[in-house]
Amino acid sequence: MQALLERLDALLADNSIFTLQTLSYYGDGLVTTVQLVFLSLIIGLVLAVPLAVGRCSRHRLINWPIFAYTYVFRGTPLLVQLYLIYYGVVFVEGVQESWLWPLIKDPFVPALVAFTLNTAAYTTEIFRGAIKATPQGEIEAARAYGMSPALTLRRIVLPSAFRRALPAYGNEVIFMLHASAIASVVTLMDLTGAARFVYARFYAPFDAFLFVAAIYLCLTFATLYFFRFLEKRLLGHLKPAS
Amino acid sequence: MKKWLTFSLLSLAVAATSAQARNDDQIRIGVDVPYEPMEYRTPSGELTGFDIDLGNALCAEMNKDCEWIVQGWDGIIPGLMARKYDAIMSSMTINDKRRERVLFSEPYFTPPSAWFAPADSQLESASEASLDGLAIGVQRGTLQDNYATDMYGSVADINRYSTADDMVLDMDAERLDIVFLDYPVGQSTLLESDSGDYRVVGDMITEPKQYFGDGFGIAFRQRDRDLADEFNQALETLRDNGTYDEIRARYFDDAE
Question: From the CA of A217, how many Å to the nearest CA of chain B?
Answer without folding.
Answer: 24
